[in-house]
Structure formats: C-alpha cells, structure tokens
Specification:
Length: about 130
C-alpha cells in the first residue's frame, strides 16, 4: 500500500490522486518535514515517522491560499493541496528564493487550469508579505 492510499483511507482527502506515477505533484505531503510524493512512498516505510497533510497545516494553507485567490490562480483547485504543501516546504527550505529557484522547486506541480504565472505572482507576494522576499 502506498502512503497516498493509506492517508486517503484514513480520511485525509486533501491528498489527491492524479497520476500515481510520481509525475503530477497532486499527492504531495510532508514526511519528516520534507515534501514527498505520497504515491511513490510505501506506507510501511513511514512507520515511526512524521507525516503532515494539508489537514494539519490549515492556518498556513489559508494564509497562502488568500494570495492564490487574489491572483486568480485557482480555478477548480484540484492541484491546490499538493501545490500548497510544496510551497510551505519551499518556504522552510529556501531563503529569499529567486524566481528561477521558485520555478525549479515547484516544477513537479502540474496545474491544467490556471497556468503558472498567477501562481508565481501569488508566491512572490506571499513571501514578500512575510519579509522573505522583496
Ligand atoms: S498522484 Fe502522486 S505524483 Fe501524481
Ligand atoms: S486549478 Fe485545476 S489543475 Fe490547477
């Protein structure tokens, strides 16, 4: 059983299923604080480790989500949970990231509705508001 299957079975329905092949980013969660694609991780390998889904970071997700909405970067939002989990991990790992660093970090998060410019603007404004990027 994959971590994605396990988490959804436990009711963490924010963990979406897009490709099940490690290519879309929709199933991103944090494993010991790092972003992982939960469809590529065996649940048994997570025994004793810390797994966080969007359900566990609702306050931070809402703060960033407001910037996404302001930029019109969310349409039906199926990609949003995985995307937001990756943005929150990036925020922890990269200090004052450049535009290219942001794009490289988030390259695995596919969105088929909105394009990526609105998402990029939302991230830049969010980081600037937190004093992490001007
Ligand atoms: S469902 Fe895991 S990367 Fe697409
Ligand atoms: S808003 Fe639909 S896939 Fe991103």
């Amino acid at each position: 059983m994959t971590l994605q299957q396990y988490l959804r079975q436990k009711g963490c329905v924010s963990v979406k299923c897009g490709c099940e092949t490690g290519n879309c980013g929709l199933c991103t969660v944090h494993l010991d604080g790092k972003s992982v694609l939960s469809c590529t991780v065996l649940a048994a390998r997570c025994d004793g480790r810390t797994v966080v889904t969007l359900e566990g970071v609702q306050e931070q997700a809402a703060a960033f989500g407001a910037f996404l909405a302001d930029e019109g970067a969310e349409q039906y939002g199926f990609c949003s949970p995985g995307f937001i989990m990756d943005v929150l991990a990036m925020e922890r790992e990269l200090h004052e990231p450049t535009e290219d660093e942001i794009k490289a970090y988030l390259a695995g998060n596919l969105c088929r509705c909105s394009g990526y410019q609105g998402q990029l603007r939302a991230i830049q404004k969010y980081l600037a508001a937190k004093g992490e990027r001007v």
